[in-house]
Design a protein that fits this description.
CATH topology of the largest domain: Serine Threonine Protein Phosphatase 5, Tetratricopeptide repeat
Number of domains: 3
Order of helices and strands: EEEHHHHHHHHHHHHHH
Number of strands: 3
């Protein structure tokens, strides 16, 4: 940079990771004429701009490791299974919308392929995505099984829990859709059973456990308490440790208080109604003796059920008795449930139905 009033030079060198900046300024005049002041100021600003500098480190992009390449392949394969799932979902929803006026029969192959795409393809998607993510994290060193076992478990629970929710949403919906459109219902049921698809709709539902939304408040407080305890104990991932502790404690408490009722529900799903009744009765008797457990179930059982567990037990016993053809005994239990819990709509509806069907006095 040269000006009648000064000259300026700048240079930089790098040697052995040492950056050297050299600046040279020399004044050529002791004053600047008024008519040159604008040009002088502009040149002086250019010289000042030369004083700024920046340092960039050039690092060549590292090629992906073998584990990362393997993870990419797994992700691509997993996304491939998303194509039939999306097609089957759209096809079934569109067919259901178009068949509101008239149901169109479908071939057995179409129904079976739709079921496999809806229920088995997502299983491959979630499994491959979980495997790919774990491979990428373990291969990059961002996670290790020895140090982050809780995070690995939480990741697997998240993926397989998501698949369980998907399966629960679509299994009965697909089965009802397939049964309504099957030209050979027995054949589609046999093939569905062979390929591990739902082949039989559940029996008439037991009394559903409705959710009390306010009960989520103590649940959130308990989760926060578990996380705080995990943090106090020095867990590296306090959030994951707290959530796992909440789940384990809640499951253990629920099994201690409702183990008989859970076993009974499993028996009902298998059609073993006579064996389920004593289990439901045992649950009712236990909770009657320890009514405080049922009353404060949001804390004692970490439950968000709006209905009392004793109420559920009575209605479920009545349901099992109906399946065994013992209507009079079922009416007695429905009556007891309605007497103890006047807002029980299931018991009221069943008593009204039985009264209309058999002339039983309400």
């Amino acid at each position: 940079m040269k000006d009648p009033a000064f000259e300026f030079e700048s240079a930089g060198t790098v040697a052995d990771q040492l950056l050297t900046l050299n600046y040279h300024y020399r004044s050529l005049a002791d004053h600047v004429a008024a008519e040159r002041m604008t040009a002088f100021i502009a040149n002086l600003q250019l010289a000042r701009n030369e004083l700024d500098y920046g340092v960039w480190a050039y690092r060549p992009k590292a090629s992906p490791s073998t584990s990362q390449k393997f993870a990419y392949v797994i992700f691509v394969v997993g996304m491939f299974f998303a194509i039939p799932t999306a097609i089957a979902t759209v096809f079934m929803l569109f067919d259901g919308w178009r068949s509101k006026q008239k149901v169109r029969q479908r071939s057995t192959a179409t129904l079976l392929l739709t079921g496999l795409s809806l229920l088995w393809a997502p299983a491959m998607i979630f499994a491959l995505c979980a495997l790919g993510l774990l491979t990428a994290l373990l291969g990059s060193g961002a996670m290790s099984i020895a140090k982050d076992a809780a995070s690995v478990i939480a990741l697997l629970v998240m993926f397989f829990g998501s698949y369980w929710i998907w399966h629960a949403i679509w299994r009965n919906r697909w089965l009802r859709w397939a049964q309504a459109r099957a030209t050979e219902p027995q054949k589609i049921a046999a093939l569905a059973k062979r390929y591990r698809l739902p082949f039989q709709l559940p029996l008439a539902p037991l009394m559903p456990a409705q959710i009390a939304w306010l009960a989520w408040l103590p649940q959130l407080c308990l989760v926060a308490l578990f996380i705080a305890i995990a943090h106090f104990l020095g867990f590296r991932d306090a959030l994951t440790a707290g959530l796992i502790a909440y789940y384990v404690v809640g499951t253990a408490m629920e099994w201690l208080a409702q183990g008989s009722q859970r076993l009974a529900i499993r028996m009902v799903k298998k059609g073993r109604f006579a064996e389920a009744i004593p289990k439901f009765q045992a649950s009712y008797d236990f909770l009657s003796r320890n009514a405080w457990i049922d009353r404060w179930r949001a804390i004692t059982l970490l439950s968000v059920s709006r209905s009392c567990l004793r109420e559920l037990a009575l209605v479920n016993i009545a349901f099992c008795l109906l399946q065994l053809g013992k209507e009079q005994e079922a009416i007695a239990y429905y009556t007891q449930a309605l007497f103890e819990f006047p807002k029980n709509t299931v018991a009221a509806a069943e008593l009204a139905r039985l009264s209309d069907a058999h002339g039983v006095v309400r």
